[in-house]
Amino acid sequence: METPMTDLASVQQAIHDLGAAGLSVLTSRGEREQRGKDQTFLPAHASDAVVFAESTDDVVKIVNICRTHRCPITPFGAGTSSEGHIAALHGGICIDLTRMNAVLQVNADDFDCVVQAGITRESLNRYLRDTGLFFPIDACPEASIGGMVSTRASGTHAVRYGTMRENVINVTAVLIDGRVVKTANRARKSAAAYDLTRLFVGSAGTLGIITEVTVRLHPVPDHVAAAVCAFPTIGDAARLVIEASQAGVCFAKVEFMDTVQIAWTNAYSKTNLAPKPHLFFEFDGPPQAVKEHAAIVEELAREHGASPLQWAIDAAERAHLWRARHEAIYACFAGRPGCQAWATDVTVPISRLADCIEETQRDLQELPFPVPILGHVGDGNFHLAFMIDPARPEEYEMAHDVYDRMVRRAIAMDGTCTGEHGVGYFKNRYLVEEFGEDTLSMMRDIKRALDPMNLLNPGKLFDAI
Amino acid sequence: METPMTDLASVQQAIHDLGAAGLSVLTSRGEREQRGKDQTFLPAHASDAVVFAESTDDVVKIVNICRTHRCPITPFGAGTSSEGHIAALHGGICIDLTRMNAVLQVNADDFDCVVQAGITRESLNRYLRDTGLFFPIDACPEASIGGMVSTRASGTHAVRYGTMRENVINVTAVLIDGRVVKTANRARKSAAAYDLTRLFVGSAGTLGIITEVTVRLHPVPDHVAAAVCAFPTIGDAARLVIEASQAGVCFAKVEFMDTVQIAWTNAYSKTNLAPKPHLFFEFDGPPQAVKEHAAIVEELAREHGASPLQWAIDAAERAHLWRARHEAIYACFAGRPGCQAWATDVTVPISRLADCIEETQRDLQELPFPVPILGHVGDGNFHLAFMIDPARPEEYEMAHDVYDRMVRRAIAMDGTCTGEHGVGYFKNRYLVEEFGEDTLSMMRDIKRALDPMNLLNPGKLFDAI
Known about the structure:
Chains A, B: InterPro entries: FAD-bd_oxidored_4_C, FAD-bd_PCMH, FAD-bd_PCMH-like_sf, FAD-bd_PCMH_sub2, FAD-linked_Oxase-like_C, Oxid_FAD_bind_N, Vanillyl_alc_oxidase_C-sub2. Two copies of one chain form a homodimer. Chain A has about 475 residues and is of the alpha+beta class. Among the domains of chain A are: about 105-220, 2-Layer Sandwich (Uridine Diphospho-n-acetylenolpyruvylglucosamine Reductase, domain 3), CATH 3.30.465.10; about 220-420, Vanillyl-alcohol Oxidase, Chain A, domain 3, CATH 3.40.462. Helix content of chain A is about 35%, strand content about 20%. Chain A has helices spanning about 10-20, 30-35, 55-70, 120-125, 145-150, 160, 165, 195-200, 235-245, 260-270, 285-305, 315-325, 330-335, 355-365, 395-410, 430-435, 435-450; strands at about 25, 50, 75, 95, 105, 110-115, 135, 170-175, 180, 210-215, 220, 225-230, 255, 280-285, 310, 340-345, 375, 380-390. In chain A, the strands form four sheets. Chain A has a seven-stranded antiparallel beta sheet, sandwiched between helices. In chain A, strands 5-6-10-8-9 form a five-stranded antiparallel beta sheet. A four-stranded mixed beta sheet of chain A has the order 1-2-4-3, covered by helices on one side. In chain A, a hairpin with a 4-residue loop joins strand 5 and strand 6 (about 110-115). In chain A, about 60% of the residues are buried. Chains A and B meet through strand 9, helix 8, helix 9, helix 11 and helix 16 of A and strand 9, helix 8, helix 9, helix 11 and helix 16 of B.
């Protein structure tokens, strides 16, 4: 088992050499800690220095110096991870890619663009505003594209446009031995050799440092309509989504909120939703197609005992409707003031979604504090946010027990320990249960072949290789 | 460089041990040659024995015996490859998976099913007939699902439903050391660890023997409409597809035929199409949506000087229209009687498609025999079929020169040497040009880590590792 034997003198030598090579290096505690702490309750794990890369060549220089001194490397894009991906668990250096934020090409006729890894998804969409195209994956607005590749991010649009898996055409990455790989050209499909693109998507910075990415773009839809309605149970809501999909309905978004989340959202976002499970829908496309899909859903909603759909057609109405959804995390902070959020997600086959949520809700009822559930129903993916009082560590212990049962339940239902947040390091422990020892050891074989000293984001996915 | 040092005595010992282990083994020349020759002009490369697997456990037994004796293994699904994937270039044994043809689960609510690797796509769709769902990837009807995974197959539906890359949820595979890996559970999306599923999709049998596959299913569309029209040039046809896509049109299929193919198709399929480049369209979905998308295309077709669209709405009319497309290869055999077909494909970004086809057509005009071009325009993918007179080997030489320029042209246009047929072994030579030495060596690193003796389908993708 290879764990990086982080030798402090070697790391200091690496830091010295990085500065001597003309790279911009920061060593203040604040700078280091800021980049070792993400949006989770997980503690900061500071690197020993922050080094800025402004080009792929800079990354090659950094990697070569770090390899020589066996210095661990943790890449930093935006720090919006939800599972501790940027924690420098074994120290070493943090490569800060935020200065690599350029759009290199927009190929409107090909529905793609080439960007540097540090650009945020919001900046990219701002840049694209006049092209009639957009990049649909709506993880956190400040998330970097490189980070989204690394975590295989998705969001509310995944049911319509896919996740990062379907929307990355190629990546340029620097391997630990200094090789620069470009995983594909820009062809929309290819049957040529191994799909290294998909190998990097979701690899959490453990195989190489991603410096450039070509992503797919989609036409801004001609027409968009959104709606919300209440259901007697989550089971009814899930059945509607299954039956609508079987009828050929193409949802642009289909989002679930349970009654706890609805109560907090009503309080925070000044909505007036009934105290029941809700679905938020969005449809997009040519106007008749939108109407037709919406009509099928309205009929099914009636059959499943839902309240009448409240429609929002124009942009202002839609913004109002979705605000409640997008503010959900703020509603949680307001719901239990002074608490820290411990958010996580799992995914199951949609046929098991209602069972998985309901069994989890029963567990949650044993806790002395309320916990809301949100979900991307079309994907079978749902999120919990435990709002933990930092003054009461026993809350963490109680939450952990429910969390653990939920993750194991999802895996047992033929699902996964994470649908979109990634494994980071806290969920390493579930990978054997999800994949089995043989499959996990195949992953380790690949990691060892490409990073034998385990210098690239060590501790993520695997405690040791 | 590791090439299998196929030792005949060892291989004979392996064959003996396979029989002794109770496996069904065939050694007649006919059986061996039949499974070493696919649908191409490439010569047969027979294995030394054919072994039938009826379960994943059988495959483990076979792999363990073969590894012990350093005996190469070539998997056989249906023999419909277009690039020599099943050629036993280094001898050894052929694992015949045709008896592993069961449907293990249909999960209609989850839009997926679990099958053994040897089932054909046509059998699977026959099995699914009453479920309201279908498996959309329409490579050769007799193609096996395992083979389609291995070659990352696609077809006319890829523009709408994606390729095997998007439609495989997990695979079960046996590695050369006998480990049985299952790459994922059935969740529709997952952010957990490395995407081994996509690593197997397109790996050409070089990383493991695929025994089971979970694939995505899609609802049989409510309504389908098809149409055909002629364009002044391929450039006009490509512009239409780009502009319609920018307008949000969702094609179910959009297929190109050049004038040579049209002439041969008119003769063979008794159609009466004008001697011009044509597009064949299909739209699917709820009826209004189909009409709306079709109306946008009709308007754009007028703007681009196309002939009026000839529509085919009911199933019989559509079958008639698509018959001409699906019979294209028979039309080629009839177009140059007595010739062998040398079919190949490339893909470029769609903005370069017209240029790539037109430059290739100019090259083709230098040949003393006509060569038709067909394309999946929405993907930027097109096919050539050189019809070669076996009595005139100089035709092969002349064709090879055009072929070589076409593949290099596609790569230079930021495309790929193959969009859907795969590399097999004939296109190994183009991988350095497409990926660069660093990226190709990363692929070799993975191959070596998982199959250090290069026993799994040796010679495919890489001449040696």
